Amino acid sequence: GPPHPxxxxxSLLFHMxxxxxxxxxxxxxxxxxxxxxQIDCSSRKLKEVPxxxxxxxxxxxxxxxxxxxxxxxxxxLLSVEEVKLFDNPWNCDCHILxxxxxxxxxxxxxxxxxxxxxxxxxxxxPLKQLTGNELGTCKKSLPIxxxxxxxxxxxxxxxxxxxxxxxxxxxxxxKKVVFQINLRRYTTRGPLLWRHTSKNHKLH
Length: 204
Ligand SMILES: *[C@@H]1O[C@H](CO)[C@@H](O)[C@H](O)[C@H]1NC(C)=O
Fold this sequence. Notes:
This protein is an alpha/beta fold. Helix content is 45%, strand content 10%. Bound molecules: 2-acetamido-2-deoxy-beta-D-glucopyranose. This is Glycoprotein IX platelet.
């Protein structure tokens, strides 16, 4: 049936409170009514950044097993002032740029002690010092992808042309068959019918 207004209100409330909820593996401390939360998720062997409350102000994620942050994952955290992300095995391919740019916007000093663990050429390099041409591993994959798209498109276009030719041929063939059937009907049944009706006419 239609959604119950109370059920909708409860789910909305649940959704609202969920964004305020402390991640299960972390310690959260209120910094006062409007000041937001201190969220301590450090030293917990985390492999992924947990879902974080939007009112996070201090975010401690150091000494975990984080390698990357999915693009957009931190966009909802608008009141963050301090972030600790050091002592994580960050994988500094092009996907790390989201984290780098987010930190540059939100908390530039937090960038200082974040170091890359992989890939090998940038091992131990601070994220702050990472330059564009050191993110080579992702750049290389782009032309391969383009080439993939090129071949896929070529195959699709070829398939479309073959289909068109087959349909055109089938239409031509079926027209010929229909024409032959019509012709046969005209030459055999047509005159008979005509003779039959003309006979009837004669009877009247
Ligand atoms: C890092 O985390 C591990 C547990 O994952 C803990 O045993 C260790 O003491 C932590 N190190 C620091 C410096 O906090």
